[in-house]
Amino acid sequence: MANQVIDNIKRFRTGVIVGGVIGFWTGGAWGLLFGAAVGFVINRWLYRVLLGDKSPQALFFKATFAVMGKVAKADGRVTEHEIQFARDVMVRMRLDEDKKRQAMAYFSEGKQTDFDLSSVLRPLSLLIQRRSGVKVMFLEIQLQAAMADGEISPNELAVIQQVCTFLKMSQEEMNQLLARMQAQQSFDGAQSSQVSIEEAYKVLGVSSDVDDAQLKKAYRRLMSQHHPDKLVAKGLPPEMMQLAKEKTQEIQAAYDRVKTARK
């Protein structure tokens, strides 16, 4: 019970702080307490209005496939590779038939010309604004969708940039993530050991001249950022835990490749 109260205060801390400050200036210490309480209630009410009756997991699930559809249709037509990627994600998530139909419905909704990204990204952004790991996971899935046919087109990149704007991610953050995702794609399909080691460094987001301490720090940061249990606790749908596990395995493989080369 106490933990739930603390979690709620953290979630709605903006309202608590603003209300508390206003209350303090108008009524001193008692005003601070009253203002904080009022700010908490108002902040929670606004969340419910903007998020509707959907759970955080349901919002993330819908946004994932709807935005995926938007990305796929960015070039004017949806390719078989992009459709297959969406289906592969559903398989990796181990969705039952009802969930698959729901996911495809969201994907089709996102393909519509008049689909408004803000309808799913505005409430999602409000929900995960301080949850960087969940943001990264969401964007990684969309970047994978964009790269499903081998490359990211300017139109697909434009949609991804819109996503970043809604999620309050900077251009630099997007570029770094894109570089890591492209490296991961090359690393997974690399045939040459030389190419593998070069891409392994990029997967970890570091240059080949970093020392061992910096390398380990980057590795641990990425592993923590993609930890399945942490992500689910922060709003990632449980069905997507497998995707997070796969990502940690990819990071681990890149790190092991670099360590082996350094020995």
Question: Overview of this structure, please?
Answer:
This protein has 263 residues and is mostly helical. The chain has three domains: 50 residues, no CATH class; 128 residues, TerB-like (Orthogonal Bundle); 75 residues, Helix Hairpins (Orthogonal Bundle), CATH 1.10.287. It is built from 13 helices and no strands. The radius of gyration is 21 Å and the shape is globular. The N terminus is likely disordered.
CATH topology of the largest domain: TerB-like
The SS-based structural class is mainly alpha
What is the rounded Rg? 21 Å
Sheet-strand content, in percent, reads under 5%
What string gives the helices and strands in order?
Answer: HHHHHHHHHHHHH
- Through-space gap between termini: 50 Å
Largest sheet: none
What would the average pLDDT be, to the nearest integer?
Answer: 79
Residue runs with pLDDT of under 50 for 5 or more positions: 1-5
CATH architecture of the largest domain: Orthogonal Bundle
Count of the domains:
3
Annotation field: number of helices: 13
Give the beta-strand count: 0
Shape: globular
> Into which percent range does the helicity of residues fall?
over 70%
What is the CATH class of the largest domain? Mainly Alpha
Top keywords for this entry?
single chain, 263 residues, mainly alpha, TerB-like, Helix Hairpins, 3 domains, globular, disordered N terminus
SSE diagram, text form:
Layout: H1 2-11, H2 13-51, H3 56-72, H4 80-92, H5 97-111, H6 118-128, H7 132-146, H8 154-166, H9 171-188, H10 193-203, H11 212-225, H12 228-233, H13 241-262
